[in-house]
Structure formats: structure tokens, C-alpha cells
Design a protein that fits this description.
Elements: E1 5-9, E2 14-20, E3 26-33, H1 37-42, E4 48-52, H2 57-66, E5 70-74, H3 80-83
Parallel strand pairs: 1-4, 4-5
Antiparallel strand pairs: 1-2, 2-3
């Protein structure tokens, strides 16, 4: 089973989200407020979520894992919004 991949560009008040399925079809590409992050991802099937390492990334990773997602935190030199989806990859076992 292949999982969809989402990139989250974390910020103080609004977060940019880009998601693609295993064929590269864009599932979502929008900006949401901080208060909508958990409700947005609660309604998405389990996926791989990539985000840049920052002060809040570990918090968001824990919260998103609780919703059934797999969180990948990338080195801060990688800008998720610019490099997505090639900044990280996933291979099924």
C-alpha cells in the first residue's frame, strides 16, 4: 500500500500544505491557520508528513502521529515548500 505524501511549511500563524498521492496527483495545496491543522489532518487518511526542523516541528510531529500519520522532520536547510516532494522519500517494506 502506498501512502500519500504531504509537505507542511510551518509558520507562526498560517501553514502551507502541499499533498500528493503516489502517482503525483496534487491532493491539496493551500494555506491554513494554526487552529485548523489538526482538524484538517484528522480528515486525511494516514500519510507521510514532511516538515522542516524548527522549534515547533516536534510538537506538530507528535500531534500528527497521534492522528495515525508518519511524521518526517527534515534538516532546516531544506525548505519543504521549495523541495517538495523530492526532499524526502518513502519506500514500503
Amino acid at each position: 500500500m502506498s501512502l500519500s505524501i504531504y509537505g507542511i511549511d510551518l509558520a507562526k500563524h498560517s501553514f502551507s500544505i502541499l499533498g500528493e498521492d503516489e502517482q503525483g496527483k496534487v491532493l491539496i495545496h493551500k494555506t491554513i491557520t494554526r487552529s485548523k491543522v489538526l482538524s484538517t489532518f484528522a480528515n486525511i487518511p494516514p500519510a507521510i508528513l514532511g516538515m522542516e526542523d524548527c522549534g515547533a516541528s516536534h510538537y506538530w510531529a507528535r500531534e500528527l502521529v497521534r492522528l495515525g500519520h508518519t511524521a518526517k522532520i527534515m534538516a532546516s536547510k531544506i525548505d519543504t515548500a521549495d523541495k517538495f516532494p523530492h526532499a524526502f522519500s518513502h519506500q514500503e517494506p
